Q: What sequence folds into this?
């Protein structure tokens, strides 16, 4: 990871200038803030995936609404035509009643009733789609506001990290100058008066005995190491994506798989071997694989997706869900597998 490599070089340079303790403390604080920045980038990427999902649904509902309105328009035309035919049949039967005109009148009334029902059903469909479309518009607005807010918080955190790096470099530069000045003063000072060498006693056997090492603090247990703070927004995101997937797959009848576009779908992380996706149904594909920290590029067939993996998640197993319902704008959902144990 470029950030980690740059941070390592910075720390290595600082250790020789400002000392181990202060350098390690500064590095620890910087690492914490950089990890926080990476987490925020990951959450922001999830927000963008959600925004893309809402936009895809909006496009689908725009098409549904257009088709429903066209169907309603045709139903209304059919209704008007059936009404004209009914009135004509009523006039004919009234002017010269017969079994034929009675039969024609009965047929015209039935056609008119069916046309009226057709208008009602198509009108209800338009109203339902419009209602769902209005809800999507609200979700779209909220999602856009969330993305904008996340962008502002990211900029603020990035500015904090940059400030910390500049402060560390400034402190190192100041101390380096002070050390150089001190060395110059020592160099230009008059030579010291020669002093006789002190008598150093010969080392005894007791003085060569090994010094007892200081007790080492107990390492944290595996249970303590496994405890990690889960971002509430990440939890909400994972919960929402699982509910979306369960609802989508729940629409299938028993024994059905739904649309299955890809017979061979693979994920190829940067510099690693390809991994095969598992087909779930309804053009949804899943795999679980370990990830590497940093800015990663994941290639899925011909598509490429860029994601940020925090350094805390280096080597962790991630869940990858590829949503291929809309091939012009497919979605890649990914999240740490360990989050699933926190959903219940």
A:
């Amino acid at each position: 990871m470029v950030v980690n490599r740059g941070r390592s070089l910075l720390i290595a340079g600082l250790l020789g200038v400002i000392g181990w303790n202060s350098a390690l403390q500064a590095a620890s604080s910087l690492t914490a803030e950089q990890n926080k920045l990476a987490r925020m980038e990951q959450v922001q990427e999830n927000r963008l995936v959600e925004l893309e999902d809402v936009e895809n649904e909006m496009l689908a509902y725009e098409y549904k609404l257009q088709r429903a309105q066209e169907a309603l328009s045709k139903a209304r035309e059919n209704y008007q035509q059936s009404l004209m035919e009914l009135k004509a049949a009523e006039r004919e039967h009234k002017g010269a009643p017969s079994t034929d005109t009675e039969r024609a009148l009965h047929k015209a009334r039935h056609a008119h009733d069916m046309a009226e029902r057709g208008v009602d059903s198509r009108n209800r469909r338009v109203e339902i789609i419009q209602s769902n479309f209005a809800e999507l518009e609200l979700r779209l607005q909220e999602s856009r506001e969330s993305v904008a807010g996340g962008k502002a918080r990211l900029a603020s955190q990035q500015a904090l990290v940059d400030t910390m790096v500049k402060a560390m470099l400034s402190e190192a530069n100041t101390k380096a100058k002070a050390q150089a000045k001190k060395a110059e003063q020592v160099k230009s000072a008059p030579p010291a008066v020669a002093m006789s060498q002190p008598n150093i006693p010969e080392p005894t056997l007791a003085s060569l005995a090994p010094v007892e090492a200081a007790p080492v603090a107990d390492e944290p247990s595996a249970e303590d190491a496994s405890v990690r703070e889960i971002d509430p927004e990440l939890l909400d995101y994972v919960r929402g994506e699982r509910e979306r997937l369960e609802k989508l797959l729940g629409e299938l009848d028993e024994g059905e798989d739904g649309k299955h576009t890809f017979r061979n779908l693979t994920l190829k992380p940067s510099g690693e071997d390809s991994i095969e996706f598992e087909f779930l149904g309804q053009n949804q594909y899943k795999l679980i694989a370990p990830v590497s920290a940093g800015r990663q590029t994941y290639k899925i067939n011909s598509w490429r997706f860029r994601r940020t993996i925090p350094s805390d998640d280096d080597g962790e197993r991630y869940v990858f869900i590829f949503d291929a319902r809309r091939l012009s704008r497919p979605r890649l959902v990914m999240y740490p597998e360990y989050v699933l144990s926190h959903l219940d």
